[in-house]
Design a protein that fits this description.
single chain, mainly alpha, 3 domains, two-stranded antiparallel sheet, globular
């Protein structure tokens, strides 16, 4: 049995000795030659008293090789190939983590620093993809209890599953449920999950895909996925969401009336406290009355701005200092108060 590192193979006995030594005093005495913390060739700072602590690494990639790894983390774009992309170097989570650990950002050139950022984002995507897979697996192990009233969305998962995640992540029940729902969506998109695990889609694009598929029946996912996935890794997130919604509109066999009634069931209003005595009030409403409400607010706000309604102060040119957004917010409060 051996543990294989980038530069050499060490036996299980050597590895056990190394771990026991580090666990005992935080130093590197007894480490095999060429292993982290053992002197020349080891990772700087992995010995006694280092801030790195017990981080273990088997080195073997020199600085130039590590730079090539972070360059390899950026895939070539067919229409814009990169001249300095190293041939024969394949990015993996292991080599990527090694490069990010051992390279210091302040030693890199501007271009390599940008590649370092990409490498970090790609490694984070890999970790997040694995987390989503674990969440999906966890959900399968928590079927609803007999006395539960199942949720409309994903009724096969217990309501208490989110409660366990609350404790793990120290988050609210709603946020925990969102994570489970996101994991379920990703599990129904196998090709998307594969690209996410390879770091070729990041969390931002995954969220964009999730938003685009809101209120879309899951049995339509296999039709849509091959249509929206090509080029998704380089697409603006908002544009990706719009593309998916257009595709869903085109390929959804349900009538617009059916989709509207299902979406309308999700209407809600929420309140979020903000610092310094402020708060955020949000709502999801049917489009027609929501547009009418906003147009009314906008009309009132523009009229108040033109009339120079009382403001907190004047600008140097004598114009009211409130912005249109300020007027919209004030008119919104006025409109709500007049309803009582």
């Amino acid at each position: 049995m051996t543990w294989v590192g980038p530069s050499r193979t060490i036996s299980a006995d050597e590895w056990a000795t190394l771990v026991q030594t580090l666990d005992g005093d935080g130093g590197s005495a007894g480490a095999p030659e060429g292993v982290a913390g053992s002197g020349p060739g080891g990772v700087a700072g992995s010995g006694s008293g280092s801030s790195v602590g017990h981080f273990l690494s088997v080195p073997g990639l020199e600085a130039d090789s590590l730079v090539r790894v972070i360059r390899a983390s950026v895939p070539d774009h067919p229409k814009a190939p990169r001249k300095n992309n190293p041939a024969g170097v394949t990015w993996t989570p292991a080599t990527g983590a090694e490069a990010l650990t051992r390279l210091e950002p302040d030693t890199l050139s501007d271009n390599d620093l940008l590649d370092y950022l990409h490498a970090a984002n790609r490694l984070a995507a890999f970790a997040q993809a694995r987390e989503m897979e674990a969440l999906a697996e966890f959900a399968t192990r928590r079927p609803p209890l007999n006395e539960e009233t199942p949720r409309e969305q994903h009724p096969e998962v217990s309501l208490w599953a989110a409660g366990e995640l609350m404790a793990v992540y120290a988050i609210s029940a709603g946020t925990a449920q969102h994570r489970l729902d996101d994991a379920a969506t990703l599990a129904a998109l196998p090709s998307t999950g594969t690209l996410f695990r390879k770091g070729l889609l990041d969390q931002t694009r995954i969220h964009a895909i999730r938003r685009g598929l809101e209120n879309v029946p899951e049995d339509l996912f296999p039709v849509l996925e091959p249509l929206f996935l090509p080029g998704a890794s380089r697409m603006n997130p908002a544009g990706l969401t719009r593309k998916i919604r257009r595709l869903a509109q085109k390929h959804n066999p349900e009538s617009l009336t059916e989709r509207f009634h299902r979406a309308r069931a999700q209407r809600r209003v929420w309140f979020t406290p903000l610092p310094d005595g402020m708060a955020k009030l949000g709502a999801i409403l049917p489009a027609t009355p929501a547009l009418a409400l906003f147009q009314t607010l906008e009309t009132w706000a523009l009229q108040a701005q033109r009339d120079g309604e009382p403001s907190t102060a004047l600008t140097p040119t004598g114009r009211p200092s409130r912005s249109l957004n300020n007027y919209l917010a004030d008119c919104f409060l006025d409109l709500i108060h007049q309803s009582f």
